[in-house]
């Protein structure tokens, strides 16, 4: 399972890539929408795309339009991570089936939370508290 990162800014791409790889996700990085479409042709195991909007050659919304026209990728979850917060961009992304629209800068923890949510991954449940721990918490609350 791979996550396709589509980001033209090398520093932003590196931050996204490093954040995801440290959490044991496999990543592929593309520098434009056009590169992303080529990557999808070569990598059939992509389960999620994270894309910027403003990129050379083909921006994120145009990429999303093309993606929705390809039957094999029409339901791919897409997280947009951008500095563009204009209502028109947000509405267009929603109409195209964007899973999440995040504004940069974004914390690593929030990014991972949205990635897990988009992939349907639940965090491991904490170990249930022992009976003694439950009694201790009840005593503190009273």
Q: Which features characterize this protein?
A:
142 residues, alpha/beta, disordered C terminus, 5-stranded parallel β-sheet, Rossmann fold
Q: If you had to describe this structure to a student in words, what would you say it looks like?
A:
The longest helix is centred in the first third of the chain and has 13 residues. With 142 residues, the protein is of the alpha/beta class. Strand 1, helix 1 and strand 2 form a beta-alpha-beta unit. The N and C termini lie far apart (48 Å). It has one domain: Response regulator (Rossmann fold), CATH 3.40.50.2300. It is globular and about 30 Å long. 25% of the residues are buried. The chain contains 6 helices and 5 strands. The protein has a 5-stranded parallel sheet, with helices on both faces.
Helical run tally: 6
> Radius of gyration, rounded?
18 Å
User: What percentage of the residues does DSSP assign to strands (E)?
Assistant: 15-25%
Structural domain tally: 1
Structural class determined from secondary elements: alpha/beta
**Largest sheet at a glance?**
5 strands, parallel
From the 3D coordinates, which CATH architecture would you assign? 3-Layer(aba) Sandwich
| CATH top level label | Alpha Beta
Q: What's the CATH H-level homologous superfamily?
A: Response regulator
Strand order of the largest sheet: 2-1-3-4-5
Which range best describes the helical content: under 10%, 10-25%, 25-40%, 40-55%, 55-70% or over 70%? 40-55%
Q: Give a count of the beta strands, DSSP E runs of length 2 or more.
A: 5
Distance from N terminus to C terminus (CA atoms, Å) equals 48 Å
- At CATH level 3, the topology is Rossmann fold
Q: So what's the overall shape? A: globular
